[in-house]
């Protein structure tokens, strides 16, 4: 069995999620290779050795410069055919999901998504897939020759095991339709203040805050706890808080030691971005809010009263 | 211009979803509705149509025969007709099969623009458009929060983990909209009345040249092996604020050594 892991990169760095999947794959005891696709990325590829790849295939081409899926489908399909790779794993992201979906069609390869674990049982791979709002955990398998999987963001932490990867370049050829979509403008929204992806403590605000001015409550508590501020998609869309702080399906995936959710109902889109958190405290006035299903301490009450009091208590106890 | 919108019937959010232990598939016997995310793709198609020019909006779906009932909501919103791929042999189809069947139905329609919603609310997949685009050999743009169609081109503002990108592609193209793109309209009474009279066509696998062995579980590349209960999340505590909640949170954080 040869498992390839799609190593996504952004701003010259291999993404944590991909490296986590790489580490998981390496722990299964199978032959594991990394794949880096881009333009000017050869140096980046060598770095994957520290996270468990013995070998990294690199395609360096102008068609692969923009983070668009279809040229990546061409490259991966070619690699699978030429190198006898039977399994390709991805850490879910907008780019990785589109790439995996395209590759599934190209190779008629089964794709299981939203996996949180993977095991090798009697020579076959078995994935763990939470379903129906995580109310049931399914063991899923593959019946196709080539097997594809997308892992839930934050499913695995990268493990630095040391070592060096042999880097092998390959030259993909591209389909006409694969290069028709063109990147006109690639926006990078840089976050200010502590990065929520690396914070040990996150205080997040949702629509229950009532208005953008009440984010000061969240900011004050975050400051007292020494943490970062995050927001839900609803309030980012409403313009209350910057996109760089958005946690959820199309935002960032976070896994702090403590996540305090203020006025957040806990829609599935938000949940997928924070369910890897250690301890979750939720404050919401609606006793039926879904967030109470996946928190460690749920408080039904008015956050406008509770949060300032809590901030004060935290300050007192810390001083 | 012909605009196709791929839509899906899903269990109503009010129904507690369950997986049938014998088939290991989602139990679809309860109340069903149009996938909410898909109504946003329908809304966007109607906006493109209303922006001018002669356009037709066709719904394309795959599902059990009764799924036409759920599609009627999209017809009531203003879509012109519906095509449902429905075949007993197609039950249990995964991404490989669904993309194969939808691509065949879309090929038959020859649409200039194909729209998808952000995800299905039952399987939480967000991969189908990419698979369909590959089978149709057309460009694809996903997570589109703003869409413009002009001069034979489509331009989408894509929302990703890192910010917004602007991507352009020539028509025919496949677009998957993000749930930030619009608020779908409510069907008007007139729309609801006229929906029943709009053309609704049901196609079998053989109508599309697809044999039973490339449909359903037989044609799929994935399988469900077993179902388990989720791992417990420790003992969650829930309290109602009686004025002491802030103190109780602080104590809880101290107990967990987080303070």
> Largest interface here, residues on each chain?
A-B, 95 and 82 residues
Major beta-sheet overview of chain A: 7 strands, parallel
Helix proportion range of chain B: 25-40%
Total helical elements of chain A: 8
Overall description:
The complex is a heterodimer of chains A (319) and B (259). With 319 residues, chain A is an alpha/beta fold. Chain A folds into 2 domains: 2-179, Rossmann fold (3-Layer(aba) Sandwich); 201-318, Rossmann fold (3-Layer(aba) Sandwich). Chain A has helices at 16-27, 42-46, 69-83, 94-107, 215-225, 233-237, 268-274, 303-318; strands at 2-6, 9-10, 13-14, 31-38, 55-60, 87-91, 110-115, 117-121, 124-131, 136-142, 147-151, 166-169, 182-186, 201-205, 228-231, 258-262, 279-284, 297-300. Chain A has a 7-stranded parallel β-sheet with strand order 7-11-6-1-4-5-12, sandwiched between helices. In chain A, strands 15-14-16-17-18 form a 5-stranded parallel β-sheet. In chain A, strands 8-9-10 form a 3-stranded antiparallel β-sheet, with no helix packed on it. In chain A, a hairpin with a 2-residue loop joins β8 (117-121) and β9 (124-131). Chain B is an alpha/beta fold. Chain B has one domain: Rossmann fold, CATH 3.40.50. Helices cover 27% and strands 31% of the residues of chain B. Chain B has 7 helices and 15 strands. In chain B, the strands form 3 sheets. Chain B has a 9-stranded mixed β-sheet, sandwiched between helices. Chain B starts with a strand and ends with a helix. The mean pLDDT of chain B is 93. At the A-B interface, α3, α4, β7, β9 and β10 of A face α3, α4, β9, β10 and β11 of B.
